[in-house]
Design a protein that fits this description.
It is built from 20 helices and five strands. Strand 4 and strand 5 form a beta hairpin. Helix 1 packs parallel to helix 5 and helix 5 crosses helix 16. The N terminus is likely disordered.
Length: about 525
């Protein structure tokens, strides 16, 4: 009988207390989940198309400005160090190299990035809460209005959200499985995010703390070292280190980009310089609440609910998102001046919490209160009612916003001018004059931003020359370089003599006399 006994194996020093709870088949992503993700892609494409049909052109001037910069970078590829981080411009230039269309190529890049974000966050939801949460996450992300609008824009947000959601997926998979492969892949994705928007730098700081802390605890409990943990923790800082070094080498200050950004914000909105510390601390949350109040309240409540119910499973993800928001607010409030676009600085945090919204709704639906009798059943019914109403009201709020997409940029006069100017440029010029000078008010006036839209919407970025200097118009007319000219009447410039001219809104288009 002794020969039949199974030898007692020495127990390994391993604990599961630090590991997340395991939802049923949470690591399985069967075909049903991918079908849901594909359906969410279809919903996103339809909603994006409808937004364009309803008059959305670009979220603000930053989108078209970035496209022009990407186009100019493509004409002369180079390493440049300045206020803007470079990766988005490289990707825009690459897209334009493949498809020479200033209006559509950037939208295609943003659309692909938006689909990647849907996929990444659906897999985050599936990893942490099961495939139903993943499917519901895909639907919610697909219909989130700002993700819809950014997916057909030249803004940096869609690319940034794709990379940072890839980082969140890598972090979640590492935390659940203990494998270093998703951690390193997530670190690479986060490193790319740090080269797109500065918000990624704050994610990198929180990431390092979570990975080093969690990795050390996991390794100690399992009695082994994990070589990939240190690499995964520090890899996102590779670009940050290069950028700081380059700023020091070129400008003698590793934070030269941040100081220049603060100066630009001061010029754009001088009143914010005198804002109190409390006003600075509240500026970004207040701006975010103004545009997505329902989502912020619901996602924050969902995150708190999951922290109470499943802290070991959701703690790392919530700390990654919430810790970044807190760090960003503290640093920017004490260092950088506030400026336009404040509503977008915390928008990635909302996007990353959408899986928590889906998971919390399903957790409420599956709630099994302790106790017996009618009281327990009533609690369960109430929880399910809250879950259903929450999802329905959330999607209804999305629908209301999607029905009225942003139409502020470009302004109506610029929208009317672009097709008129495009038609005029199709006419052959007998003298072969190459330029169309457009005189606009001095920046930072909003009217100056019309120039970026005109260069893109006409498809003539080299022909349309935007300036705030009337002398350039005079020189071009004197040297017979202007085939047409455009003057914004708010620039207080006297229109030059013309063979004929027309007025479109606040703009005057003139045809110089032929020679």
């Amino acid at each position: 009988m002794d020969r039949l006994r199974t030898p007692v194996q020495p127990q390994r020093r391993e604990a599961t207390l630090a590991l997340p709870e395991t939802p049923e088949r949470f690591l399985a992503h069967p075909h049903s989940l991918w079908i849901a993700i594909a359906a969410a892609w279809g919903i996103r494409l339809v909603l994006a198309w409808l937004s364009l049909r309803l008059g959305f052109v670009e979220y603000n001037a930053d989108g078209f400005t970035r496209v022009i910069h990407g186009y100019e970078w493509l004409q002369n590829p180079r390493w440049e160090v300045g206020v803007w981080l470079p990766l988005h411009f490289w990707l825009l230039g690459g897209a334009l190299a493949i498809w020479d269309n200033l209006y559509l190529a950037p939208k295609l890049l943003a659309t692909l990035a938006g689909l990647a974000t849907i996929t990444n966050l659906a897999l985050v939801g599936a990893t942490l809460a099961g495939r139903r949460a993943g499917a519901l996450t895909a639907l919610v992300v697909a219909a989130f209005p700002y993700e819809v609008w950014f997916s057909v824009s030249g803004m940096a947000e869609p690319v940034f959200h794709a990379f940072v959601s890839g980082a969140a997926l890598g972090l979640a998979r590492w935390w659940v499985t203990g494998s270093s492969r998703p951690l390193v892949l997530g670190a690479l994705s986060l490193m790319a995010a740090t080269a797109v928007r500065y918000e990624g730098w704050f994610y990198a700081a929180v990431w390092a703390a979570l990975v080093l802390g969690g990795g050390w605890l996991r390794g100690w409990l399992r009695g082994r070292r994990q070589a990939g943990v240190v690499l995964g923790a520090l890899l996102p800082f590779l670009f940050i280190g290069v950028w700081l070094q380059q700023n020091y080498a070129l400008f003698g200050d590793p934070l030269a980009f941040a100081r220049e950004t603060a100066a630009i914000k001061t010029e754009l909105d001088p009143a914010n310089v005198s804002a109190s510390l409390l006003q600075r601390l509240l500026a970004y949350p207040r701006a975010l609440l103004q545009i997505v109040r329902v989502v912020v309240v619901a996602s924050t409540g969902a995150a708190l609910w999951l922290l109470l119910r499943h802290p070991r499973r959701w703690g790392v993800h919530v700390v990654f998102v919430g810790g970044q928001a807190l760090l960003l607010i503290l640093v920017t409030a004490t260092f950088a001046n506030l400026g336009p676009g404040a509503e977008r600085y915390l928008l990635s945090n909302v996007v990353l919490l959408l899986p928590a919204l889906a998971a919390a709704a399903l957790d409420l639906w599956d709630l099994r209160p302790t106790g017996w009798g009618a009281t327990s059943r009533n609690v369960q019914r109430a929880a399910r009612l809250v879950a259903v109403l929450g999802v329905v009201l959330l999607l209804a709020s999305f629908g209301r916003r999607l029905a009225a997409p942003p139409r502020d940029y470009p302004d109506p006069d610029t929208r009317d001018l672009a097709p008129v100017l495009t038609t005029a440029l199709r006419e052959p010029d007998p003298l072969g004059r190459p330029f169309v000078p457009v005189v606009l008010p001095h920046p930072p006036a909003d009217a100056y931003n019309a120039g970026y839209a005109l260069r893109i919407l006409t498809g003539q970025p080299d022909t349309v020359v935007v300036t705030d200097q009337p002398a350039l118009l005079t020189d071009m007319l004197a040297t017979h370089g202007a085939r047409l000219w455009v003057v914004d009447t708010t620039a207080e410039v006297d229109p030059p003599a013309a063979e004929r001219s027309i007025t479109v809104g606040r703009f005057i288009i003139g045809w110089p006399a032929g020679e």
